[in-house]
Specification:
- With 600 residues, the chain is α/β, with parallel strands linked by helices.
- The chain folds into three domains: 9-130, no CATH class; 142-292, ABC transporter type 1, transmembrane domain (ABC transporter transmembrane region fold); 328-406 and 530-600, Rossmann fold.
- Helices cover 62% and strands 10% of the residues.
- The chain has 24 helices and ten strands.
- The chain has helices spanning 10-17, 19-35, 38-53, 56-105, 111-127, 131-138, 142-152, 154-201, 203-208, 212-264, 270-292, 294-310, 370-378, 400-404, 421-425, 429-433, 437-450, 453-457, 477-489, 507-523, 557-560, 570-579, 585-591, 596-599; strands at residues 330-338, 345-354, 359-363, 385-390, 393-394, 407-410, 495-499, 526-530, 542-547, 550-556.
- A six-stranded mixed β-sheet has the order 6-7-8-3-9-10, sandwiched between helices. Strands 2-1-4-5 form a four-stranded antiparallel β-sheet, with helices on one face.
- α3 (38-53) runs antiparallel to α11, α10 (212-264) runs antiparallel to α11 and α17 packs across α19 (477-489).
- The relative contact order is 0.08.
Length: 600
């Protein structure tokens, strides 16, 4: 499909910007291939002019010309590789940032497509500096060598033509024989590495539950299947390569034999015998090079197709019209969310409005859709149907980076990045706004508001403590939760979406959270908080009860939750009915602190 339908495709734009590099590389390739003829001409002159006349001076001049020509040849080859290297660097500078933005921000892509996009880009970029691209630049010059062979003698030209067509046919046959296998193997390899990475992250659980041997067996089975597939491709390609080498050596020798036969019949000179062999070998060399690099060429071709499709997703880097800071009004209209790749519905046609400054509690049994709803409201998840509006504007109409500065989001399973505690809380703001005392003060204020300041000061290096790649960043569940809460509060956001913020807090931590909600109400912030503990309901304005992805109750807290001395709260009775259990909500909360994002 043409670029006019996808004007924001960063891959196409970057490749167009590199066009000049490729043109000059092609020009230098032409000069290099012309200079490839120098050794053949030198040999022709030595046999036809120097030897019969015993001209030492002529030999000296020819040798000097040969040396200068080969020096120029080497310099041109180096310049060509430098041009291709610069094209690779330019491709990185122009496209990498946009592709990374799409990986982190494109809702239309699957996790596999996101994980594969940058690998495809690196594969394509790496091909620009490898032997495959050189072979492709040299290949168009094969006909020139065939014409030169024809000028030596028509039979030599015919042999060169037949030889080239034969090797090209083998290359096409090899491509057809391995193309589908290679694409499937690449997908299988990506999936195998992803499951292995996940097992590494969950290695502690595997050790504790005695699952290590089973996981090792699983990965060995996957690897055995992968190795078998790779071996099949290697075997097929290796067979074609062996046949190609055999034919190239045979045909080059046949050119020598043909030249000798023609010389015997005085159709060509003695020097032309060796020149014919060299020229024929040079004509066939690009084809053999392409066969040698066929795996890289096909890999680059598949990478380009996959990356091109990924880059046709909406460009998240194009900033829409700048809207004023949100006051915090949320309007939800007919939201429907389904399980990816399934018809199972997680949220059923939800519609409601939350006014600025209101604090709303989301309650309901596990799997009711609370975490999914918070993900939709925060913009982390795109709904399948319906829309979310902030201050009357659709989420798609906001500059998401700008809107994100006014949003505080804390997922049920907090995700901390492998950087310092300061970097996590500040949302890497130092990389965009610079580091300074003002940023440090904002970080400390957010930590104090979350009740995390004293805890962080007891870390090994305080706010400069480096978190690790392993699960939780090396922190306990409670530590991870308060750091994530501090990150959500950073920058005094007007909209906060908190998923089970008290799941791992003790009594003092929950009291501090109640105080934080009180401070947020005084500031006029809009807060939607998911909880299983009824104690937190005393700090909210409204209660929304979800069950099976539907709203059962959404009303003022006073109408839903009544004092315990009069009768059990209506919210508690509704949750018990939905769960089919008579346990109180505090007992349920300790059993349900898990990732609802996975379970809907």
């Amino acid at each position: 499909m043409s670029d006019q339908f996808y004007p924001s495709n960063p891959l196409h734009a970057a490749l167009r910007a590199c066009r000049r590099h490729f043109i000059f590389a092609g020009v230098f390739s032409g000069l290099i291939n012309i200079l490839y003829l120098v050794p053949s001409i030198f040999m022709l002159q030595v046999y036809d002019r120097v030897v019969p006349t015993r001209g030492g001076a002529t030999l000296l001049v020819l040798t000097a010309i040969l040396i200068v020509s080969l020096i120029v040849f080497a310099l041109l080859d180096a310049v060509r590789m430098r041009l291709l290297l610069r094209a690779s660097i330019r491709l990185e500078k122009m496209a990498a940032a946009n592709i990374l933005h799409r990986i982190l921000g494109a809702n239309g892509a699957t996790q596999t497509e996101r994980a594969q996009a940058m690998r495809d880009f690196d594969t394509l970029r790496g091909t620009l500096t490898g032997p495959a691209i050189v072979a492709l630049f040299d290949a168009p010059w094969a006909p020139i060598y065939i014409i030169i062979s024809y000028l030596l003698h028509p039979l030599i030209g015919l042999l060169a033509l037949v030889s080239s067509l034969l090797l090209i046919g083998l290359a096409v046959w090899n491509d057809l024989a391995t193309k589908k296998q290679l694409a499937l193997t690449t997908q299988y390899s990506t999936a195998a590495y992803r499951t292995q990475d996940y097992s590494i992250q969950a290695s502690e659980v595997a050790r504790a539950l005695g699952m290590r041997s089973a996981l090792v067996t699983r990965h060995l089975v996957e690897r055995a299947d992968l190795v078998r597939k790779q071996s099949d491709i290697a075997s097929t390609s290796g067979g074609f390569l062996a046949v190609t080498k055999f034919l190239r050596m045979l045909l080059q020798s046949m050119a020598l034999a043909l030249g000798a036969w023609l010389a015997i019949n005085q159709s060509i000179s003695a020097g032309a015998i060796f020149a014919a062999s060299l020229i024929l070998g040079r004509a066939l060399q690009p084809v053999e090079q392409i066969l040698n690099a066929m795996k890289n060429v096909m890999g680059a071709q598949n990478a380009y197709k996959g990356l091109d499709n990924f880059c046709r997703l909406p460009d998240v880097t194009v900033p829409p019209t700048t809207l004023p800071a949100p006051a915090g009004k949320l309007e939800v209209s007919n939201i429907v969310v389904r399980v990816p790749g399934s018809d199972r519905v997680l949220l059923h046609d939800l519609s409601f409005t939350i006014n600025p400054g209101e604090i709303v509690a989301l309650v309901g049994p596990s799997g009711a859709g609370k975490s999914t709803l918070l993900r939709v409201l925060s913009g982390a998840l795109e709904p399948d149907e319906g829309e979310v509006r902030v201050d009357g504007a659709r989420l798609a109409d906001w500059d998401r980076e700008r809107l994100g500065r006014y949003i505080g989001y804390m997922p049920q399973t907090p995700t901390l990045f492998p950087t310092t505690v300061h970097g996590n809380i500040s949302r890497f703001r130092s990389l965009t706004d610079g580091h300074g005392p003002e940023l440090d003060q904002e970080v400390i204020t957010a930590a104090q508001m979350a009740g995390a300041h004293e805890l962080i000061l007891h870390f090994s290096q305080g706010y400069d403590t480096q978190l690790t790649m392993r699960e939780g960043g090396g922190l306990s569940s409670g530590q991870r939760q308060v750091v994530a809460l501090a990150r959500a509060l950073f920058g005094r956001p007007n909209l906060l979406f908190l998923d089970e913020p008290n799941a791992h807090l003790d009594v003092n931590g929950e009291a501090r959270l109640m105080q934080t909600l009180h401070e947020l109400r005084q500031r006029g912030a809009t807060v939607i908080v998911s909880t299983h503990r009824t104690g937190l309901l005393q700090a909210v304005d409204k209660v929304m009860l979800l069950n099976a992805g539907q709203i059962q109750v959404f009303d003022d807290r006073a109408k839903v939750v009544r004092p315990a001395s009069v009768e059990p709260p209506r919210e508690e009775r509704l949750q018990n009915e939905a769960n089919g259990s008579s346990r109180n909500n505090d007992e349920q909360g300790s059993d349900r602190a898990r990732d609802e994002g996975t379970n809907g």
